[in-house]
Write a structure and sequence with these properties.
single chain, about 450 residues, alpha/beta, Rossmann fold, Ribosomal Protein S5, domain 2, 9-stranded mixed β-sheet, 7-stranded mixed β-sheet
Length: about 450
């Protein structure tokens, strides 16, 4: 009589295992994430506990001749920028984003561009039927591209199909959560199935030299679903961000073994698909000629690209006992710190006022250099004094109220000059970065200086 297989409970959030079901995962603390799966571990006495027939390898030093990894262009300039100059053959890329953000559209445009350039691109869709993919291709004007299309969710069938023909230059899997392996006794999308499918596909891609692009679902927190081990297995992790209320989309690299991280590519969604935006600063700036109180233009850096973004603030009397703090596109903890510094160091009271802060265009800002711009917007709204139309602001603020230096001030000022801005409110360290013909620099050493200049309209 066959011995029944042992079952374990695997957390679908962090991937940890437990011998019995629990309401709360003991590793990550999430509730109702443990799912029952078959234990794929071998019997005792196998694996690491047994000496295998390994071979001795030659150890090398750090000094030696190296060559740059070969790349091929995707035909999409913004995607080449994010990946570090193109896709490396044999690499694995993981792209995540909210449903309907445009992941499938971007990948279909990528596959069509490579196919039209003479390369072989294979597109496996596990979420849509072939007719739906063809309808999207016809709407985008890509139906004439020689893309090899298949709708399949069986991992064994996909690998057999790839091994039967010539190795493609690009393999697209949309999405990894829909695949299932017969050897794994678990439902598609579980940790075991996703991990097994990713391992098999990455092994095949690196063996034959094909670039593999996996699509991953995201959780309600915006993170790629499944355990972090999937992100560790791939070479590049990309996040496709944006707001459905706006037409632009941002492709952000958070991991790249062949290029820089925190690089972004900007696209605009239209009827004909995603269009590249070479100058994204125009998307994130207001179109009005007269700047209203509470609006400040921040000169930021995203990866290697300077971007100008409008930060909007509204300070209004609170109608309730507890004032409200609402933030969109910025860190709420950073806003709380700024309000505390403004109250303690500058004498501006926000205890009985509602404070709203918004980054125009749905952009997400992470760098501390936006402190001074956010503070300027708050001061402008609290004093009902608008900032000058042609002024950009950047600088980090410390807890004592000093304005600290930030990196790449020269690139920020150059971008502002290119877009027609005439002056800048910045820390004193940026004074040495100003060249002849650039913007006029107004230096502020402390936050009280910014309050004084805005209240007196003196720049």
């Amino acid at each position: 009589m066959a011995k029944p297989s042992k079952t374990i409970f695997v957390c679908q959030n962090c991937g940890s295992t437990s011998p019995r079901w629990q309401g709360k995962c003991p590793a990550c603390g999430e509730w109702n994430t443990l799912a029952e799966e078959a234990d794929a571990a071998g019997p005792p006495g196998t694996g690491l506990s047994r000496r295998g027939s390994g071979r001795v390898i030659v150890l090398e030093g750090l000094r030696g001749s190296t060559q740059e990894a070969p790349r091929f262009s995707t035909g999409i300039g913004e995607l080449d920028r994010v990946t570090g100059g193109g896709i490396v053959p044999g690499s694995a890329l993981l792209i995540g984003g909210e449903p309907g953000i445009g992941k499938s559209t971007l990948l279909l445009q990528l596959a069509a561009a490579l196919a039209r350039s003479g390369r072989r691109a294979v597109y496996f869709s596990g979420e849509e039927a072939a007719a739906q993919v063809r309808l999207r291709a016809a709407r985008l004007g890509l139906d004439d591209a020689p893309v090899a299309l298949a709708c399949e969710t069986s991992l064994a069938t996909i690998l057999a199909t790839l091994e039967a023909g010539p190795p493609p230059d690009l393999i697209v899997i949309d999405s990894i959560q829909t695949l299932w392996a017969e050897a794994i006794e678990a439902a598609p999308g579980t940790v075991s199935q996703v991990r097994a499918a990713a391992q098999a596909l990455i092994r095949h891609a690196k063996t034959v030299g094909s670039a593999l692009l996996l699509v991953g679902h995201v959780t309600k927190d915006g993170q790629i679903a499944g355990p972090k081990v999937i992100e560790h297995m791939v070479d590049t992790v990309l996040y496709f961000e944006g707001d459905r209320g706006h037409t632009f989309r941002i492709l952000r690299a958070v991991k790249n073994r062949f290029g820089a991280t925190d690089e972004i590519g900007v696209f605009e969604m239209g009827d004909s698909g995603l269009r590249e935006v070479p100058n994204p600063s125009a998307l994130f700036l207001g179109e009005g000629k007269d700047r209203a109180p509470g609006a400040a233009v921040f000169a930021g850096i995203e990866g290697s690209r300077p971007v100008l973004v409008e930060i909007q603030a509204l300070v209004a009397p609170s109608a309730y006992g507890t004032p409200r703090r609402a933030v969109v596109g910025w860190d709420s903890g950073r806003l709380a710190m700024l309000l505390a510094v403004l109250e303690a160091r500058c004498g501006l009271g926000f205890g009985d006022k509602d404070v709203y802060l918004n980054v125009a265009g749905g952009m997400r800002i992470n760098e501390p250099a936006a402190d001074l711009a956010a503070a300027a917007a708050l001061i402008s709204s609290a004093l009902d004094m608008p900032l000058p139309q042609g002024c950009v602001v950047f600088g980090e603020i410390g807890l004592s109220g000093e304005v600290r230096a930030v990196g790449r001030a020269e690139a920020r000022l150059r971008e502002a000059k290119k877009l027609g801005f005439e002056r800048a409110l910045a820390p004193p360290q940026a004074n040495g970065k100003v060249k002849k013909g650039d913007v006029a620099l107004t230096v502020v050493t402390r936050l009280t200086d910014a309050v004084e200049r805005i209240s007196q309209n003196r720049y």
